[in-house]
Amino acid sequence: xxxxxxxxxxxxxxxxxxxxxxxxxxxxxxxxxxxxxxxxxxxxxxxxxxxxxxxxxxxxxxxxxxxxxxxxxxxxxxxxxxxxxxxxxxxxxxxxxxxxxxxxxxxxxxxxxxxxxxxxxxxxxxxxxxxxxxxxxxxxxxxxxxxxxxxxxxxxxxxxxxxxxxxxxxxxxxxxxxxxxxxxxxxxxxxxxxxxxxxxxxxxxxxxxxxxxxxxxxxxxxxxxxxx
Length: 228
Ligand code: FE
Known about the structure:
The protein has helices at residues 51-59, 73-80, 147-154, and strands at 14-20, 23-29, 32-37, 40-47, 61-67, 95-97, 103-105, 109-123, 126-138, 179-181, 187-188, 224-226. The chain is mostly beta strands.
């Protein structure tokens, strides 16, 4: 059996938000999909350990913002690798309060959907929430970010709580060594550099300034380890 076959499935990348009382939270999810058209329903698979899971369970609503291809890695990292238990993830983010009274992230979004939960399916580590769409808008005609593009081009990493997470083997690094963030698993590739963070392609890790931080989770350069 080769579970790499799962990597051939296509997904988008979304910010899924919910609320609990007056508190808001959001997270990155790649598993938002339409279930039926009459009535229009969507589903999302959320890890039970995530705060957003607790919020959706409680409020029975969620929103999903579809991200554009040019979404910066730092934005994805903000929603994907930080916990709403530690910070208010919506602070400093462009969002609106939707029909569901839950936040709808507008930043880097090409469209959004809001849903009221009709059904919950216990899937072991995750719950699949199926919701009826109560509001939806298209915000731009920019290209959507696909999960594949995120992996191939942005070279992000997958949070351990994501449904698609698979323990990855260490990669052989030809030429200048690659370095991995020990906090989130992001890999610094000298060939790609980190243009969003001001590091030109072709910059070895040693040449990266000490003040540089992981573009995904914000960890210091000292938190990186060389990939053997
Ligand atoms: Fe990191």
